[in-house]
Amino acid sequence: MSRSAREDILARISRAVDGAPEVEIPRRYRATARVDDLVGLFTERVGDYRAIVHVVPEAEVPARIAGIVAGRRMVVPDGLPAEWTPPDASDAGPADPYTADGVITGCAVAIAETGTIVLDTGPGQGSRAQTLVPDYHLCVVRADQIVAGVPEAVSRLDPIRPLTWISGPSATSDIELNRVEGVHGPRTLEVLVAVS
């Protein structure tokens, strides 16, 4: 009876390390980064991804949302702050993501260095289908949700929750190196950064 090559290799490795002392591997990952202007860097990086970005005072967010989504049939996820809900959304009932013009959400956290928005399906963030199926996504990011880097973002997230990491509108260059937008998510991403 012959053993497979895989079993032979694993047996040889096991014999080679048998009796070797345990080695502690130091993990000195960068946990924080210094960014003087989180909002400025975040908006610059989100803009680099061809997203539409607006920095607005928090008090003006409801009026800006109403103006942006006027006339559009929007998916409004459960838990979206009432003041962010478009005035005509309650009359129409919940929009189907497959027939809606777009979706409006909040976020769990945003990352300045990468221009990334993270959704965790929490209140006001919607399900993956609600946020990935419509062709347009309006996301409200509060300034206090912006962190400098990925390690800080990860420390704020629950790894058990379904996470959607958004870095600009959906796009790919897999097809003959031509950029194609809207392949696996919204073709248009618009971001309102709410500052106090």
TrEMBL record:
<dbReference type="Pfam" id="PF02589">
    <property type="entry name" value="LUD_dom"/>
</dbReference>
<protein>
    <submittedName>
        <fullName>LUD domain-containing protein</fullName>
    </submittedName>
</protein>
<dbReference type="InterPro" id="IPR003741">
    <property type="entry name" value="LUD_dom"/>
</dbReference>
<dbReference type="InterPro" id="IPR024185">
    <property type="entry name" value="FTHF_cligase-like_sf"/>
</dbReference>
<feature type="domain" description="LUD">
    <location>
        <begin position="99"/>
        <end position="193"/>
    </location>
</feature>
<dbReference type="InterPro" id="IPR037171">
    <property type="entry name" value="NagB/RpiA_transferase-like"/>
</dbReference>
